[in-house]
Amino acid sequence: MTSDKQSRTNGNEGVAGAQEQARKATVGVMAGAQDAAEKVRASAERAAEKLPDAMAGAQVAARDTQRALDEMPNQALIIGTSFSIGLGVGLFITGSNRLLVLAALAPAAAMAATLLSREEAQQAAEARKARTA
Fold it and tell me: pTM, whole model, 2 decimals?
């Protein structure tokens, strides 16, 4: 009989110990999650503070690139466009990362857009000359 009482008492202590361990583990996980959330929040705040400067820098770079493209002769734009398209197609055929393929094709898009805008401007100028003549 006494051994039966002892086993029940030991069993209850074992359950209580397991419950205590589970509670401590839960508290530890919650504290870790709170720390992680705080780090994410702080990182997001730092990124948000730097975003306007990054956007301004990107706008300046885009403007400078467009100016440089506008100053290039048509032949250079055609060669650059052809090279960029060839590089992008080659990367695509070899199975390269899609982001890398897009990065290779981005200059082609900018150069082609510059060529098309020049052609449109020339056509508009010719149309004006034809009307005034």
Answer: 0.56
